[in-house]
Write a structure and sequence with these properties.
CATH superfamily of the largest domain in chain B: Thiamin diphosphate (ThDP)-binding fold, Pyr/PP domains
CATH class of the largest domain in chain B: Alpha Beta
Strand content of chain B: 15-25%
CATH architecture of the largest domain in chain B: 3-Layer(aba) Sandwich
Number of helices of chain A: 4
Distance between the termini of chain A: 29 Å
Oligomer: heterodimer
Shape of chain B: globular
Structural class of chain B: alpha/beta
Structural class of chain A: alpha+beta
Number of helices of chain B: 22
């Protein structure tokens, strides 16, 4: 099962190495990772995407909590309605006179932006959940994608719903 | 009051009531040693940094206090790694102080530079690189707190030379507060109640007690609970002594080299109560057939230990002692009588009678006989350390431990060379006690250099070498599972251990026949000096019972 784990940590040198070391040392896998400072600059927020059965996920959560520098761990299962997830991708797509209009229309449908224009390429910025990113990549692929970079996932808990 | 970093460090040790530091000087810690020269803290100069950590570890296990060692940067620091990993696996509270090159040189491949914080990240509970002198008192306070609280463990502090030379205002923090570290001490009352209900219902319960009982000083509470509810107790290797070995309810050790009755009791019980134990593979064997008919209750301070290997029905997270106290309080109030245990204890008695730990004495000395004689002649009143392998298992099987903190062994990591320096550390803590290292001829040579240390400080450690001229446990596995192909497990040359002891200034004794065993032990115990006794024992003796690795623990090869 795929999980997105949100980890609040002390913003100190070596914390990332502790977390990465925990995953590699215990045979867990990191599929995606993002880290940045929070509103409180003494803390960082990490979002880790990982995979495993219930037993493995339970261990990952407990082991993360056991690290001295970890303040809080929230584990979201795939499809969990209580959180929102986003990723960002920059896609360098080849454009010719023939396909320029098609690229632009795809970009418009996905509500993303062209952030750099060259003679032969557009660089497209797209944010969304994993499915949206995969979908636009599949549509642009036949037109000629030169390069892609994708960020790690970030996630945030939704506000509690009023019944 | 303004102090130099090195003085601040020593003042912090004083505040933590550290009585002894095991160490070895070098370039990066010269300033600390300079300050130590006129300081009241006792420093024990070992002969190898690995031994400094094992000695601090032995000191910590024997006293329950935090063990401290001090070494230099680079090779000094890397030499500590095995000792740190040993302590980490067995949850022993240590603070390891390592020198580091000046901050400006870190990362420059400077002379005697090693990234010890990076190297020890996976084998410490936590570690620090001090980059600002103002942080030092807080870091020291936190390190000691982290080492001894929750599930204890080693904490390393890396001290760059320039930082140690700066001056700062010294004040030691009274309180320690780490927002991300708040171990659970008290067990959840509802979970405890659920556990108690099972205690009362069970017809065939067994307590499986581990090193956590020793670490939380919960022996008295464990004993009271087991007695009150007539529940038999088996202990892990790490738990030996946490429940009196001579108590009728004691089943002895369980697992790969456990007693027949312990393994059978666990296999047939209907309730298994794990207390401060972690379901290690050497205990469980095949997981599917471990306590297959039992409900499982687990008391442990470390949530990661719960349901790691075996699914637990009723977990209680907290300090074992606190949980056991709460259990006793709840039972005491209710005045409940436990179920009749006659038939269950009767079944166990039959297993016991069917398979004793007897061995056949022949012309050569049996290693088991040596351990039994040491037990008999010390009347069990001594601290025993072991090396790793057959010597360790025979010591565990044939010595009855009635009290905790008398048994020093590398359980988790299985570090050969642990026993002698650990004995040294325990002897520093208890100068008047009898301390015996039950060693093998292989293991003892891994830290033999410490003979110089015990002679220098007149630490009268007794080293009993069960000398079978081979790596006994390796040889045993080769005999049983590798078609008797004894690949590189036999020593074709050994030093003369008697002369070696004498060369270091210790006493060397030897026994080659069974009738020489007792007089030689008596002689060793009578001298107030470190002694090596070279017991030339039967080479082909195997440790039994034995469960092949990964097999069900009821599948025992018996003697």
């Amino acid at each position: 099962m795929r999980h997105t784990i949100s980890v609040l940590v002390d913003n100190k040198p070596g914390v990332l190495a502790r977390i990465a070391g925990l995953f590699s040392g215990r045979g867990f896998n990191i599929e995606s990772l993002s880290v940045n400072e929070t509103l409180d600059p003494t803390m960082s927020q990490m979002t880790i995407v990982t995979r495993g059965d219930d037993r493995v996920l339970e261990q990952i959560n407990k082991q993360l909590n056991k690290l001295i520098d970890v303040i809080k761990v929230i584990d979201y299962e795939k499809g969990d309605e209580n959180h929102i997830e986003r990723e960002l991708a920059l896609i360098k797509v080849a454009v010719t006179d023939k396909c320029r209009a098609e690229v632009l229309s795809i970009i418009e449908i996905f509500r993303c932006k062209v952030i750099d224009v060259g003679k032969a390429h557009y660089t497209v910025e797209v944010t969304g959940d994993e499915n949206k990113l995969n979908a636009i990549i599949e549509l642009l692929r036949p037109l000629g994608i030169r390069e892609i970079v994708r960020s790690g996932r970030v996630t945030l808990q939704r506000e509690a719903r009023v019944p | 009051m303004k102090l130099k970093g090195s003085q601040i460090l020593l003042e912090c040790l004083k505040k933590e009531k550290v009585k002894a530091v095991f160490g070895y000087p070098g370039g990066s810690v010269l300033d600390i040693y300079h300050a130590l020269f006129e300081h009241s803290i006792k420093h024990v100069l070992v002969r190898h940094e690995q031994a400094a950590v094992h000695a601090a570890d032995g000191y910590a296990r024997a006293t329950g206090e935090v063990g401290v060692c001090l070494v230099t940067s680079g090779p000094g620091a890397t030499n500590t790694v095995t000792g740190i990993a040993t302590a980490y696996m067995d949850s022993i509270p240590l603070v390891i102080l390592t020198g580091q090159v000046p901050t400006a040189l870190i990362g420059n491949d400077a002379f005697q530079e090693a990234d010890i914080v990076g190297i020890t990240r996976p084998c410490t509970k936590h570690n620090y690189l001090v980059k600002n002198i103002a942080e030092l008192p807080r870091v020291m306070r936190e390190a000691f707190y982290i080492a001894r609280s929750g599930r204890p463990g080693p904490v390393l502090i890396d001290l760059p030379k320039d930082i140690i030379n700066q001056t700062a205002e010294f004040s030691y923090p009274e309180e320690v507060s780490i927002r991300s570290y708040r171990p659970t001490v008290k067990g959840n009352p509802r979970q405890i109640q659920r556990a108690l209900d099972e205690f009362m219902k069970a017809a065939k319960p067994v307590i499986y007690a581990g090193g956590g009982v020793v670490l939380s000083n919960a022996s008295a509470e464990l004993h009271a609970l087991a007695r009150r509810l007539s529940i038999p107790v088996t202990t892990t290797l790490m738990g030996l002594g946490c429940f009196p070995g001579t108590d009728p309810l004691c089943l002895g050790m369980l697992g790969m080299h456990g007693t027949y009755r312990a393994n059978m009791a666990v296999t047939h019980c209907d309730l298994l109560i794990a207390i401060g134990a972690r379901f290690d593979d050497r205990v469980t064997g095949d997981l599917r057939s471990f306590a297959p008919e039992a409900k499982i209750i687990h008391f442990d301070i470390d949530p990661t230990s719960i349901s790691k290997n075996i699914k637990v029905d009723i977990p209680v997270v907290g300090d074992c002692r606190e949980i056991l106290k709460d259990c006793l309080a709840a039972i005491g109030k209710k005045k409940v009588a436990p179920r009749d245990r006659k038939s269950w204890l009767g079944e166990i008695a039959k297993w016991k009678a069917g398979h004793t730990m007897a061995y056949k004495q022949g012309k050569a000395i049996k290693p088991q006989f040596v351990v039994e004689k040491i037990y008999e002649l010390t009347r069990g009143d001594c601290i025993v350390s072991t090396e790793v392998g057959q010597n360790q298992m025979w010591a565990a099987q044939y010595f009855q431990f009635d009290r905790p903190r008398r048994w020093l062994t590398s359980g988790g990591l299985g570090t050969m060379g642990y026993g002698f320096p650990a004995a040294l550390g325990a002897q520093v803590a208890f100068p008047g006690a009898t301390v015996v290292d039950i060693a093998g001829d292989g293991s003892i040579q891994m830290n033999i250099q410490e003979l110089a240390t015990v002679v220098q400080y007149n630490l009268p450690v007794k080293i009993a070498i069960l000398n079978n001229r081979c790596l006994g446990m390796v040889r045993q596995w080769q005999q049983l599972f590798y078609g008797k192909r004894y690949s590189h497990s036999t020593f074709e040359h050994h030093p003369d251990f008697v002369k070696l002891a004498e060369a270091y200034g210790a006493v060397g004794l030897r026994a080659t026949r069974p009738d020489e065993v007792e007089p030689v032990i008596r002689k060793a115990l009578a001298v107030k000096k470190p002694v090596i006794i070279d017991f030339v024992v039967e080479q082909e003796e195997c440790v039994y019972p034995m469960v092949p690795a990964g097999a069900p623990i009821s599948n025992m090869m018996l003697l």
